[in-house]
Design goal:
The protein is mostly helical. The chain has 17 helices and no strands. It is 73% helix and 0% strand. Helix 9 packs across helix 10. One of its GO terms (molecular function) is phosphate transmembrane transporter activity.
């Protein structure tokens, strides 16, 4: 009786046959699709070689690759149209375009990093590049003499001062735009958006004209940090505004219902909730400022000596170090410039990885450390 009731209608249906289950494939690539891609690649390559070498008076690797890619798309579209319907043809064309775009970006990044490694490895392989300045190094000195220590310290000090200036102003402006508002909110937002597209040399000219020429200040790391502040502040403001707007409105309403004022709600609820996103905004602003050359060129000056005081005397940074030495017709000087570019790329990579780690949580989402702390507190409360 139990066995009879346990049978499903499919089991008792007349004509039902038992057999292995058939797996339905929801993803992946079939052999026919791989063969279509391979055939399109081979056929387009052969036709491209015939056109470039035998028929058309064209030359150049870039044109060859571009023509090959266009012919591949045409061959692939024709081959897929012979096998599948128009919907699948469009889907496969979009897929191929997306994959090829991603591979192109990865290829460009690998090419740039490989080029810097190839040209700058001879300098970075010596420890003196990170421990010495160019104070006692001449144009024809060997690669084992001199380095970029003064430029690394200058970049870190200028970036630190610019971050100290731009972060409070940027976050305050974001809070005003997203939480306070008023009649000046639209002009402020328009100004911030205009400053985002501001050419970096204009920021350097502004600090040069106002701070150095008008107020009589000397070229220094402090003046360069002011120019970097002009470039970083709109980046921080726009990113922070977006993050603050993502904070759920129910948290604000709960804070107001408990009797908190607006500034207390912003300080104790909104900003702590948006902390991971704000950290990302800060790091992205730092990544923008650390690679600027033209503002630093006009405001900090150029020196081969080590200057650890950003408020007195000229101070060089990594972008300015690269710009100065890559133009010289000496192989060792060019190697030092490419090594400095490799160091700068490593700094930017560290900043973006930090932004990814700090901004990996959504607003209001607890981190693993916070969840562990809450669990420990709850366990301690139960023990008491």
């Amino acid at each position: 009786m139990t066995d009879t009731l346990a049978q499903t209608p499919a089991d008792t249906a007349p004509g039902a046959t038992e057999g292995p289950e058939t797996r339905i494939r929801t993803g992946g690539v079939t052999r026919a699709e791989l063969a279509t891609v391979a055939g399109a690649l081979g056929g387009s390559l052969g036709l491209d070689w015939l056109l470039y070498e035998r028929v058309l008076p064209f030359s150049g690797a870039f044109g060859f690759v571009l023509c090959w890619y266009l012919l591949f798309l045409a061959f692939f579209a024709g081959a897929t149209a012979l096998q599948w319907d128009a919907r699948l043809v469009r889907e496969w064309l979009v897929t191929v375009l997306a994959w090829s775009s991603g591979l192109l970006v990865i290829g460009l990044i690998v090419e740039q990093v490989g080029f810097l490694l190839l040209r700058g490895l001879s300098a970075t392989s010596h420890l003196n590049f990170f421990t010495e300045s160019m104070e006692t190094t001449a144009a024809l000195s060997p690669i084992t003499s001199g380095g970029a220590l003064h430029a690394i310290i200058g970049s870190l000090e200028q970036l630190g001062l610019a971050t100290l200036f731009s972060v409070p102003l940027g976050i305050a402006a974001a809070v005003y735009l997203s939480e306070v508002g008023g009649r000046f909110a639209r002009p402020v937002r328009t100004l911030v958006e205009a400053m985002t597209a501001l050419p970096s040399i204009v920021a350097g000219l502004f600090v040069l004209g106002v701070v150095i020429l008008t107020l009589g200040a000397e070229r220094s790391g402090f003046a360069a940090s002011l120019a970097l502040t002009v470039m970083m502040m709109p980046i921080v403001t726009r990113a922070a505004e977006v993050v603050i707007r993502l904070v759920p409105g129910t948290l604000r309403e709960a804070s107001y219902a408990l009797g908190a004022s607006q500034w207390r709600t912003v300080w104790s609820v909104v900003l702590p909730t948006a902390r991971p996103g704000l950290a990302t905004a800060v790091v992205l602003g730092m990544a923008r400022g650390v690679g600027e050359t033209s503002p630093v060129l006009l405001t900090s000056g150029m020196t081969a000596f080590h200057n650890g005081n950003p408020f007195a005397g000229q101070q060089v940074s990594l972008p300015l170090y690269i710009w100065n030495y890559v133009r010289q017709p000496y192989p060792d000087m060019e190697s030092r410039a490419f090594a400095a570019a490799l160091t700068l790329m490593a700094v930017v990579l560290v900043l973006f990885v930090t932004a990814r780690v700090l901004g990996g949580h959504r607003p209001g989402e607890l981190s693993r450390r916070q969840r562990r702390r809450i669990a420990l507190d709850a366990a301690g409360g139960r023990a008491r």
